[in-house]
Structures are given as structure tokens and as C-alpha cells.
Amino acid sequence: MTQYCFGKTHIAENRKKYMDPSYKYEKLRDIAEEDIVRLLAHRAPGEEYKSIHPPLEEMEEPDCAVRQMVEPTEGAKAGDRIRYVQFTDSMQFAPITPYLRAQCAYTRYKGVDPGVLSGRTIIEGRERDIEKLSKEMIDTELYDTARTGLRGRTVHGHAVRLDKNGMMFDALRRWAQDDRTKEVTYVKDMIGGAMDKEVVLGKPLPEDDLRKRTCMYRNAQGGVWQEEDDPESMDVCAEIHWKRTVGGFQPWKKISEIKGGKKDVGVKDLKLFVPRGGVGL
To answer: Can you give the pTM of this predicted structure?
Structure first.
């Protein structure tokens, strides 16, 4: 089996399966395709796709070995314009972290260009390809209606305290939660604009379920402490850190040849300056 990630805890196992393109994500909801189009706000439901070039079969391209080897995506075949989807993942046990969402996009989807910052992941590609992968990510276990946000702009909130119902902060108030059913409904599109119809995404996952599904190490609130609970994972991170920052990206060097090296900061002695469970506020 391909080794996609290191570590032995359930956090590491979640990372491995999410990154494995042969793994089928667990489906938690089924959002209509036209509602996905509404949420993305790139075109109106039922509107024709706009193109930036004719369909590939109508173009007279020069003979190329790469074109013969690589099957184009449906969006590329049709000449679709480039569009995007952007997710915000909370630091409070969201199912997936931003950088891992980008890695999953690389291993699972063709013709996409992911970008990642501290709390957001943008994925660019041909329009109908983006709609397809957006539906898969929103419908499945990679998306929680409380800890994941579909945000084309003003993405802030991933590191902010949750509200009393466990919902992640959204400055544009794209969602609303029913006080009785607890279902989350998007009342604005990804960019914060008005929609002709609200889109119901459903109830958030229970806290215990989020902790089982998350791929986030977190030394607080019952999370997994990477340094103590998953030493294999921390060991690899430490080696990468020292080879990068001190070794100057020279992976051919032995760690023992790097001054300081992992021998001085290995898992045995590498501790956070906080006790297990973090520091109470």
C-alpha cells in the first residue's frame, strides 16, 4: 500500500485514507447539482457554460506525445473557462486541514491548481470540473456544516472561537442555523451575494464524531498531542524541519552531519511549553 502519510494514531490513519485516491469518501448528504451551482456563484443554474476556446475536438493542435498520453478533463475538452472553489477549515477539529485538502486535490483530481494558506484552500480548474469536485467535497465527510465554510472571499474565522452552537465565525453571515432543527442553511452564495433560493446543508456532526474523523493534531480539548501520542509522526516532522531550516534543503545529507540536528530536538526531548490539554483561558 502506498504510504501517503506517517504516524500510527487515528489522526494519521485519517490522513492516509483521505489522501488515498482509491478510498471512497463517506457520503453524508446529497446536495443537488443546481444548488452547488448556486453556492459557487459562477453561473446561474441552467445557464450554459462559457468557454475560452473551442472544444478540443474542433481545434487543430500539433501532434504531441503528451496529448496522446494524457486524457483531458471534461472541462478541458469543452473549452470551459477557469473557475474556483474555496474552503475554510476551522482549527476546532474540522474534518480536514487546509494543506491536507490541497494534497487530496492533487492526488484525486486532474487539471486542478490548489493553493493553501493558514485557514483556506482554493482549488482552481475548468468550470464543470470544479463543480464536480465541489459537490464531492461538500457531500462527503470532508465537509462539516459547522466547522467547514464555503467562502469565496472574506474567509476569516478558522482560528476564531466558535459560537454557542459550535459554529465557525463568518463575517459575511453566509449561513443561518435553525434553532429548533439545528440544520444549517446557506442564505448567501460563496462570495456573499444573494441567491434565488436558500440551500440547506444539514446538521453539524456531533463533537465526538468530529474528533474521530479529524486529521488535526491538537493538544487541547481532548485532541491528540502529536509530540506525546504519535512520536513517529513527530519524528518525521522534526527531521524535515531540521533538514529544511538547518540543512538548507540538502536531503542527501545525513541528519548526523547537520549541526544541531535531530539528536538535540528529537521526540524524546521535544516538548511543548504547555501541559497536556493546553492552557485554559
So the answer is: 0.89
